[in-house]
Amino acid sequence: MEGVLTPEIWIAVAEKTKIPELRRTTRDEPDYDKLMRYRIEILDRHGIKLSHIQEVIGTLKPLPGGKEFLDELRSLVQVIILSDTFEQFASPLLRQLGWPVLLCHRLVVENDRIVDYQYASGSRNAKPSPPSNG
Predict the structure, then answer these.
(1) How far apart are CA 1 and CA 90, in angstroms?
(2) How far apart are CA 73 and CA 129, in angstroms?
(3) Which of 2, 41, 63, 124 is least crowded, fewest Cβ atoms below 10 Å from its Cβ?
(4) Does 127 score more than 60 pLDDT?
(5) Confidence of residue 120 (pLDDT cuts 50, 70, 90)
(6) DSSP type of residue 6
(7) Distance of CA 42 to CAs 25, 31, 70, 78, 123, Å?
(8) C-alpha distances in angstroms, 40 versus 57, 59, 116?
(9) pLDDT mean over 70-97
(10) How many CB atoms are closer than 10 A to CB 83?
């Protein structure tokens, strides 16, 4: 979703907070768990809370043509977006995109502080279930 339909949230947060380390994305660090641990540590060090990030997200708009692309696609097929964003980040952008279905990760938050995350499957260490024999 980010970088295709919407701006990249972490980059927007980096620009707003003037914390260049938050510009790091999966292009820079392909190990997602390592990247998220790094981000959480940076947020902690600078006292950045979930509500601060959500304020930045509230200022973002879809990329030009993003909503129109989804509208055209929805006229042809059901649209489901699979993204490495987080439920707590997505709502303002999904509203502007006409509420497409989104499958994404979830942040673990304590007192507005991001402490961990869960993969879309619900568990950071989830492994695919073996196929059933039925």
Answers:
(1) 10
(2) 31
(3) 41
(4) no
(5) confident
(6) B
(7) 13, 17, 34, 38, 23
(8) 17, 22, 7
(9) 93
(10) 18
DSSP 94-124: HHHTT--EEEEEEEEEETTEEEEEE-TTS-T
Q: Choose among 20, 28, 31, 13: nearest CA to 114.
A: 13
Q: Which of 9-18, 22-31, 97-106, 116-125 has the lowest mean pLDDT?
A: 116-125
DSSP of 53-79:
HHHHHTT--PPTTHHHHHHHHHTTS--
CB-based contacts of 1: which residues, under 8 Å, 6+ apart?
81, 83, 85, 90, 93, 102, 104
For residue 18, give both structure tokens: 């003037």
> How is residue 66 written in tokens?
């993003």
Percent of the chain with pLDDT over 70: 90
Would you state the structure tokens that stand for residue 96, as one six-digit string? Answer: 């502007």
Residue 91 host element (H or E): helix 87-96
| For helices 50-57 and 87-96, angle between their N-to-C axes, nearest 10 degrees | 10
CB atoms inside a 10 Å sphere around CB 66: 18
